[in-house]
Amino acid sequence: MKSRIEIKRICAWCGKEFIAYKTTTNCCSHKCGNALYKKRKRDAAIIANNNLTKKIVTEKPIEKIKDKPFLTITETAIYLGVTRPTIYGYLKRGDLKATRIGTKFLLSKDDINNMFNHPADFKLPPKEKQAITEFYTTAEIIEKFNVSESWIFVMARKNKIPKTFNRGKTYWSKKHVDAYFSSKAPDADITEWYSVQEVQDKFQMSLNAIYSFVYKNAIPKKKVGITVYYSKKHFDIAKGIRQAEEPKYYTVQEAMEKFKITRDQLYHYTKYHQIPKIKKGKYTLISKPELDNLFEDPIIE
């Protein structure tokens, strides 16, 4: 039931005069109300961020620890400007030493400072460009990979495939072309596939529903001629009619999210500690047991 109260008010957003039927109404329309709400949320977020920045500047975490002779793992990370996993890496390699007192690991600031008294020589290996000696002609790519000529030029431009011209012909770097198609090749472990028609018949899905489902669940696919196939195993798991296997590998994104590290840090750890990794299509997979073991809390006796 509409209220009989009529109150003349000024819209808090657009400034126009309007008739309100409740004393709590501030805006003349739903549009103005939404705009005002978003502005208030933005203002609140800005204030919260400014307060956080002010708190950090005022407190200055480094000031709290500069006079401490012993530091915790977190304080050491702040002191050196790195992450906690990096400190654990230093401990495991023996670059730093820690003493366990109760549930805390403490590091001597003198040991940390002494680490920089004997720096190793830092040299970047010179990069040598390897000459490209093997090439495909455009016709050879069309014949081998069953693609069109116009598609080759689009793909090469997007992926920066080296090319050269000789006597009116375009030659493409064989190494780069093979690497591109190898990255697009389906996983060799996948042996069972659904065609689009089979998916439609089995799950009663429209084409749009299939495309959306495949995209959301990252289901592997392959193309043979003009026919697209989807991994039967992954489709069944996503549909809940098959049990997913325990993963033995992390993707790069999964490892970054779990251990709170950057991509560069992850690649550094895998290279330095020689953690096995494999390439499957366009994805790099990193051994789960070895990576879990690397980031376990150190046990110092």
From TrEMBL:
Q: Which GO terms describe its molecular function?
A: DNA binding
Segments forming domain Helix-turn-helix: 70-114
Against InterPro entries, the record matches this protein to: HTH_17 (IPR041657), SinI_DNA-bd (IPR010093)
Q: What is this protein called?
A: Helix-turn-helix domain-containing protein
